[in-house]
């Protein structure tokens, strides 16, 4: 991967403040019960209460976030959030649902979609999610610990709009989800899909 630069935890701005935040070398964030991000599709509701710590993401840049969490509450989630506005955003990472840890992405352009696959063997790992911004796309990769990178999603994404990205977490069904974010870095975007 290209040379990277660390982003300081206090260089970002929260979309919605978590229940609590403790900053040391890492960042421990505790989600508010009921927090989530979703728009309309299948469920008929709009949730706009995720906790995302965002900094600018330009075309040609990538952002990586590493984290750990206990993964025991229905729909507990964490990863990377990329936002243009209320109607255009991507959340990608892992979500615990129906007794499985899923790796996937929600891509929203007016309405949300969701792609996901089980990664139960990642449950006790440090997970890293990487997003690369191209002129017309967002490329999402992820890995557990120092494992191989896995392509998660190639999604359309407007290269002419200002976008912001960074760590996110949400806990739609419970109080007490604390995610430990261990790394937040910026680098050049990946140049290849394969």
Description:
This is DUF1349 domain-containing protein. It is a single chain. By secondary structure, the chain is mainly beta. The chain has one domain (4-187): Sandwich (Jelly Rolls). Helix content is 0%, strand content 57%. It is built from no helices and 17 strands. It has strands spanning 4-6, 13-14, 20-23, 27-30, 37-39, 46-48, 51-56, 61-68, 76-85, 88-97, 100-109, 111-118, 127-133, 137-144, 150-156, 164-170, 178-188. The strands form 3 sheets. Strands 1, 3, 4, 8, 13, 14, 15 and 17 form an 8-stranded antiparallel β-sheet that branches. The protein has a 7-stranded antiparallel β-sheet with strand order 2-7-16-9-10-11-12, with no helix packed on it. The protein starts with a strand and ends in a 6-residue tail after the last strand. The model has no long low-confidence stretch (mean pLDDT 96).
């Amino acid at each position: 991967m290209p040379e990277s630069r660390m982003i300081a935890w206090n260089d970002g701005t929260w979309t919605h403040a978590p229940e609590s935040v403790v900053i040391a070398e890492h960042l421990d964030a505790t989600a508010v019960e009921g927090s989530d991000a979703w728009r309309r599709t299948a469920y008929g509701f709009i949730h706009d209460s995720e906790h995302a710590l965002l900094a600018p993401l330009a075309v040609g840049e990538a952002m990586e976030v590493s984290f750990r969490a206990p993964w025991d509450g229905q729909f507990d989630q964490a990863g990377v959030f990329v936002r243009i506005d209320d109607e255009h955003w991507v959340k990608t990472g892992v979500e615990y649902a129906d007794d499985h840890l899923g790796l996937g992405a929600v891509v929203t352009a007016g309405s949300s979609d969701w792609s996901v696959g089980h990664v139960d063997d990642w449950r006790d790992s440090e997970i890293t999610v990487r997003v690369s911004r191209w002129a017309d796309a967002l490329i999402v990769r992820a890995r557990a610990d120092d494992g191989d990178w896995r392509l998660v999603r190639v999604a359309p994404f407007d290269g002419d709009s200002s976008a912001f990205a960074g760590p996110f977490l949400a806990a739609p069904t419970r109080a007490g989800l604390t995610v430990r974010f261990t790394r937040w870095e910026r680098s050049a975007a990946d140049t290849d899909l394969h």
